[in-house]
Amino acid sequence: MENSFGRILRDGVLAGLVAGAAAALVALLVVEPRIRAALRIEEARAHDGGGHAHSHEEMFGRVTQVIGGMVAAVVVAVALGALFAVVFARLRHLLPARTEFGRTMQLAVVGFFAWSLLPALKYPANPPGVGGTDTVTYRTVTYFSVILAGIVIVALAYLLRGYCLRRGWSSPVTVAVTALFVTLLSVLVLWAWPDNPDPVPGDVPAGLLWRFRLSSLAELATLWGVLGLGFGLLSERRVAATNGTRPVAAAS
Question: Transmembrane stretches, by residue range (predicted)?
């Protein structure tokens, strides 16, 4: 009963809630200063061009936008936590680790790679003022196509790992071959996929651009890291309750 799917799903939702709160905090403290700097550049650009910058600002002030973004981050993280739990329940037996905590962290690393890192390497996040509205659909499709490619790479890597083990290869050799395979396919995706069609305006400093991109990636890393850590600890507690033993992560 303690190890039922319902309990696993609740653990995923709870871990997602904590991960969303952590990611929202990173967004507030790390990402938001970069956004404000980019907004000042965008406002100056509009004034120089004789336009009216942020005519909607009085109705949707920056504070409201920040709070809304933080709430959205938590909601998305909760949904991601539920999805994480479903995937874990279905693929748990395929994850090569001895403990539930190890399996969970492996899945979190895989999720971060396919869902966040690979897309960010090909299409890094841009601050406000970079990117046109006429290319939103195109950019969205290409971004999610990289995510799909990342999932395919992970699936093929697990198939390759199983093949190597069935051939009797040692664990270090199997890990090295699998890592090389993932690297080569990732490089192929980064090379083959089309570039971002939107140029970066000349008034956006390179330092601001890359600080924003790194900050955005740090927010995603926090989300996946806390999600994996939280779900892993809850999984160990769940298994310990089922077996009547102490959680591995808490044992001395």
Answer: 12-31, 66-89, 101-121, 141-160, 172-194, 214-234
